Records
---
Amino acid sequence: MLDLICSLWPHKKMLNKIQRKRRIKLVQGKPNIKVGSMWLKTLLFAILVFLITVFFSYKVFDGSNSFNYLLTINEQNDQISELKDKIHKLDLDIQLIEVALSKKDAELKKSKEENNDLQEEILFYEKIVGKRR
């Protein structure tokens, strides 16, 4: 394509100079990026679309009921944790009562053994002495 342009253009040297200047200009020049306020407009538009979408979904899906549902879940989680604490305390109370009952059972067994021993002694002495009436 360059040959076609060169054959049509009478001055080859001038074309080569222009191409060389363009190459030098591209290499030496700083990139020129136009930022402007377009990115700001795009960002604001995206935020606006997001807010409209949130509002629309809140209205369509009845967000107040959903929010209330989430609040009741949170309240029920709190109640569950309170009930677990009460259950833990009651388990500790039951364990203490079981320990007390086991001690009472041990004392009762001991007193029954003593009572049996005393009754055996009474029977023994009654046989020796005789019954009193």
---
Amino acid sequence: MVASTPIMPELRATPQQRRTERLRFPRAKSYISELDIVRAVACASVVAVHVMGMVRGLDSATGQTEVIGGIFSTLWHFTRESFMMMTGLVLVYSYSREPFPIGRFFGRRTVERIIPYILWSMVYVLIYYPRRDTLGWWIHFGHDLLLGGASYQLYAMSVNMQFYVVFPLLLWILTRLRSSHVPLLLISLAAQLFWYVDVAHLPPGQSPFPFITQNVIHFIFTYPFFFMVGAVWGMHVDEVRTFIDRHRRPVAALSVLTGLILLGRYALIVIIQHRPTPIGADVYEPAMVFWSLGAVALMWLWGRRLTGPLLSIPQRLTAFLAKSVSKASYGIFIVHVLFLRIFFADFATRIGGGAAIQFLVLWAMTFAASFLLTRLLLALPLLRLALGDVQWSRPHALSAPPPTLPG
């Protein structure tokens, strides 16, 4: 008599085997579809900020262009804070379980974020800093790698990597102090406001930490509140979703108010007091803290309207485009400066119609080229590694799929 083979051998796994599998491949949580809009709009706004900065620097730009461009740049500068909030949200949402798989966490961060950061930093340094003196080149590369200075958008990646280092401790604190999340938010908000009001504007000669003050945008100390907001949000996604659904109009009204306050500050400084536009558009101001929250809340509300089975055709198309851009947002963020520099050098002065047309054409060209290159890289098995896109395999049926949200 032939022994029968169990149809589902995984059911006979020992408790220790099941526990090991849960640690290695924890069960995926539901996909937060609202974040597609947040990522897509934030990504488009990053490109817009950088294009606007280029257009405002043209010799043909007028004083009116400078003032109007400063208004849009001020509103679009919620991007860095929104990405930091999303990083905290996604990581806590994906890893808020015990015990924390620290080896797996840092392994994935190395492959998906650190290696691409090093690779693209080298690409930018090779392009913009020709290799003449070997020792000098490596010193320059090491400095840019430390501070995210190889290209002006990469500092955000270096800040995120600093967050990865402290994330296990933060997750442990949030898990142990579940009843103290509001005080933690208030403490981080106070630290954020103090930093923006005082430390971020100290001249290096008056600062006790001149190196940090001189490179203030490159360190995690500059953004504690935004990471904390995202982390606490990640612990309470369902509760936050329910709250915003119940108070949709007040949330939208308060969010718009934060934007109006930011614009009022800009108008006071630039239009009424006739002070330089960079002062009015300074992103390290208390008003920007609240506008960043408001902007993310507005994008979340928009994304919420695009969820559910009963969507109109325009809503479905918007949701599809948002998800497509969301999947490519990391790559667009990395590569768009390459295309912007090329297009600006070759086409900016040839585009007629004034600064508005120049901006729209350059933005569309840069965004489209970055999106297409990213999709191409993601479609090729080896090159997709340059963007940290790795398919994490599962050994057998006991394993649940890895988290669906990228960290």
---
Amino acid sequence: MTTAEKMESAVNRLLQQKIIFTLNNKVMKSGKLILFCIKDFYLVFTLQNQNIKKHFEIPYPYGFVEGHNRIQFDYSVHKFCQRNTHIETRAKLLSTAKKPNKFFNTYAEISVMENVDS
């Protein structure tokens, strides 16, 4: 099974559930997960809140870990460089040249909202 297939399988288990997206322990989005697809280098989620559907895209992560009712996406430089310290140092130096993307060297998480009435 490829990484994309594993990712799709993990996210499919969260479909039709009320979920919350967090980045650095801050809530980015929340709602009922209606659809999911992989488009180019992005994961595209369709969330529904009070009959309003909105699309939400995040970059494809360098790695992910599936847990009970949650998926953690790894955007760390360490994971990207696959433990090559020379490349990791250069990547971190490049990031200081301009303001990096909000996903740079972080972790994001999708988790099921607990104790939520439907």
